[in-house]
Structures are given as C-alpha cells and as structure tokens.
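Workshop exercise sheet. Pairs work together: one partner reads the sequence aloud, the other fills in the structure field after running the prediction. Swap roles for the next sheet.
Pair: D.N. / O.F.
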Amino acid sequence: MPASLTVLRLVVALGLTTGVGLAYWQPRGPLLGYWLLLSIALGVAVSTASALAGLARRAKWLLSINAIIVAFALATTQLAARRAISSTHLEYRGVHLVGVDSFTVGAGDGDADVRLQSVSSATPWSLRIARQGSAWTVEPRAGIEQLRVGPVGKSRGARRFTVAQSTILTNGTDWVAIVDPSGAVVDTLRLAGDGVKSTTSNSFSLRPTNGAIAARYRRQLRAGVALSSLVGHRSSPSPYERFVRV
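Structure field:
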C-alpha cells in the first residue's frame, strides 16, 4: 500500500478518536461542526491523493469515509447528550460553619458561600441551606433540575430521600403552584382522574394510551419523569413542562 494511503488511514483513525474524546470530555462543544470540518478535510485529501487513480476508486474512498463519519457522528451525539444531562451525585465533607442560619453551596457560582470545584462540561449550579426552627431545609437556586435529599446510608439503592421543592397530591382538592425564578405563580396543577390538569387546561395522563409502552411508562413514573414526556392534551404548551417532574 502506498505510504500516502497509510497516512490517510491514520488521519481518519485520529480524527474519529478525537471526535469520541470531544463527545466524552467536552459534551457541550460544537461536536457536529467538528464532524463537518473533518468530513470536508478528508474529502479534500481523498480528492487530491495521487495514490488514488480513477474516479471510481476516489468515489469508493469518499463514500466509505463519510459513511464511517456519519455513524460516529450519530453515536457521539447520543454520548454527548447523555454526558451533558447526566445526574451528579455529590458527597462533600470538611466545611465547618458556625453561627449561621443560612448559606449557599455551589460550583461555578461566584456568589456561593461554599464554592466547590467545577468541571468545564458542567453547568454552574448552587443551592441554599437554611435553618427553620430545629430543622434544616435545602432548596436549589440555579442550574439544578432535581434535588434529592436523604440520609447517608451504606447502600445507595436502599436510601430513602425527599425531593426539594416538591409536594404530594392525595385528592382532587389538592393543588400545587408553579412559580418562576422571581416567585410569581405561572400555573397550578391538581389531580384530575388518572392524571394531572393545569389551570391553563393542559392535561398530563398518568396512564399510557398505548398498552405497548405501559411497562416503560410505569418505570418512568417510578423514577420521576418530566411533564413534557407524558401523554395528554396541550392547549398551550408551557416551558416549565420540561422541568416539573412527577
């Protein structure tokens, strides 16, 4: 095999490896742009390679390389999405606070009282811990989709926990308000039959309409699922549906 083709194979392998590395360590980076530039650069290299004689052979190389790049682009997009939205389990010890009734903990937030180390791929986040009588409350401030609070146990799977800024609806007269960051009420939710209904006439079913997805639907509800993932009727979809979980 000519030396130029060997070099081209090595460049392809290096480009694919670099793309996988970007998806894993920099999931919020311009991943699709990288794959597009790599495809263009390799296309130019194949078109000008003197070791490839004839249009048929060049076309075969171009199709093969682009098919591989498309496959890697699709796979790494899924990897980057999972890395960007994966849950964070935090255990932190060693801070001693005396004589305070409230403080904030965060990473990447310059206003936090206790600043933890952050990573480049993580969104800045912070939470507030405050004393109310003899108990302490924990509330998310920014960058946190769901905050679970529970005692430290020997087995993570056996732990019981509570979810910050949550409530339990037991009958049709119970309701909960959805507030924006300023504290203004943007909507309310209440139980209605086999689901949840909002003041804006949106409904979210707790039972699937298709029996083929019943098992998956139940698993999602047990783990906690966003309202936007539930079937139902939307007269006017609201942005909060992506963040409120049941």
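Discussion prompt: The CA atoms of residues 104 and 128 lie 4 Å apart. What would you look at next?
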